[in-house]
Design brief:
Number of helices: 12
Structural class: alpha+beta
Distance between the termini: 81 Å
Largest sheet: 10 strands, mixed
Radius of gyration: 27 Å
């Protein structure tokens, strides 16, 4: 077949390049990744020197067509309205990387709002993150109480992930495999690579891993193995509040008393003075806990229902919330209704807000409305932000500790030392370590063979 020359000019118009996606809006980026991290230790606390940080947020559907200041006044109530008005006017808040002409600028779909601020993190305990075991794939740590695992809310560098990164190098990427609340201390697994982290996380989810906690509770706990099978219901999703209820989710915990210390020691009297129930001097017990299921606040709520709440629990051992019975044996809410409890919590003022609402991550919104009672009265010299007072011991410690993780098949086991609050007080004798989990497991092995 013969080849012929094709004319270069045709009657067709030139093709226009069509981009399926529009370019993202420009954003402002401040030097918000200082290295080394600006930590310093002072008065038993790990502090972070204030630093500038930029939050970038795409316009949400409910923001479309609204004025910029109106969005900040209703959606971001962490600071006074006057602060946001000034921040917009001086260019600390920009849209698509550029200052806006006025606070009444209307936001539209696709806009990126950038807010650069002088960030102040709350201090945490200066206790180190100790290593219980380390190999090529995994680090087993003993997490201090009061330190969140991940950056969240007002915490960023003062988190387990960022503290470990600061200690091991900027390129280190710690991958937590199990979760502990900020106030809970104890055994945690940190993966060094994604494959190892996923393997252990799946094993924990499959319930072939046994967990043991240790708690310090009010009063003298009963002898023997105590199995609590009461279901749990979240009565306030907004406040993250749970209680025993027949129509809740199935939950099972095995408890066993390790020791009982009657009142009389100097330490005991001191702890009672700060307890919600100051009228009784009933001593305290150290209790071993085996959670068969993993419901939110399961150990705290089951111990409360049994009449032995964790002695310094700012929520479940607070008479201002639960009344004098503290939720004991009230599965049908005949003594204190859910509405009564939620109302009491919402009406708590000054010291009670500081002792309860502020210490649960899911209660941040409620706390933000009342947190002025915890302000120091001083202002930051750089950004004029009102400053917080230092956290008290009750903000840094809950007497609940993740003591042990072990494979049900016996291939591995990691146990931390007992925390100081679980050791015998001065002048009294008691256990300084725990035995195996055999007795705890035996109490439920027929119903839960997967952990036997």
């Amino acid at each position: 077949m013969a080849l012929v020359e094709v004319p270069q000019e045709t009657s067709y118009p030139p093709l226009e390049e069509k981009k399926p996606f529009t370019e993202p809006a420009p954003v402002l980026v401040a030097p918000c990744d200082p290295w080394p991290r600006p930590y310093y230790l002072e008065n038993g606390l790990r502090r972070v020197a204030p630093y500038h940080y930029t939050y970038n947020t795409y316009c949400k559907e409910r923001w479309r067509g609204r004025e910029l200041l109106d969005i900040f006044s209703s959606e971001f109530r962490d600071r006074p309205l006057e602060y946001y008005k000034d921040a917009i006017e001086r260019g600390s808040v920009v849209v698509n990387g550029k200052p806006v002409p006025s606070t009444s600028h209307v936001v539209k779909n696709g806009d990126v709002i950038s807010h650069t601020l002088h960030r102040h993190e709350p201090p945490v305990t200066s206790l180190p993150i100790s290593v219980l075991h380390e190999d090529d794939d995994m680090i087993v740590i003993n997490k201090p109480s009061g330190v969140p695992v991940h950056p969240a809310g007002r915490y960023n560098f003062n988190s387990v992930v960022e503290i470990m990164r600061a200690e091991r190098g900027h390129g280190f990427n710690p991958l937590p495999c199990n979760r502990l609340d900020r106030l809970t201390s104890g055994v945690m697994f940190i993966g060094k690579n994604a494959k190892a982290a996923e393997k252990l996380s799946m094993q924990i989810t499959a319930r072939t891993v046994r967990k043991e906690y240790i708690a310090r509770v009010k009063g003298e706990f009963p002898d023997g193995e105590v199995v609590c099978d009461m279901p749990l219901l979240q009565i306030s999703p907004k406040l993250g509040l749970n209680r025993v209820r027949a129509n809740g989710k199935a939950a099972r915990t095995v408890f066993k008393k390790l020791a009982y210390y009657p009142p009389g020691s100097k330490e005991q009297n001191l702890s009672e003075e700060t307890n919600a129930d100051r009228s009784k001097k009933e001593g305290y017990s150290i209790v071993r806990c085996l959670p068969v299921t993993g419901r939110t606040h399961q150990l705290r709520v089951h111990l409360q229902f049994l009449g032995h709440p964790i002695a310094n629990d700012p929520i479940y051992c607070n008479q201002r919330v639960w009344g004098t019975r503290l939720g004991f044996n009230d599965a049908d809410a005949s003594h204190d209704t859910d509405e009564d409890i939620i109302t009491r919590l919402s009406r708590m003022g000054k010291s009670e807000v500081a002792d309860a609402v502020a210490y649960h991550d899911e209660m941040v919104d409620e706390y933000n409305k009342k947190k002025a009672e915890k302000m120091s009265g001083e202002l930051c010299e750089v950004c004029q932000t009102p400053l917080y007072t230092d956290p008290g011991e009750q903000e840094l410690t809950l007497w609940l500790h993740s003591l042990r993780y072990e494979d049900a098949g016996g291939s591995w086991s990691y146990v931390s030392p007992l925390p100081a609050w679980a050791l015998p007080p001065d002048g009294q004798e008691g256990p300084t370590q725990v035995g195996t989990m055999d007795e705890l497991v035996a109490a439920v092995k027929d119903e839960n063979p997967e952990i036997a």
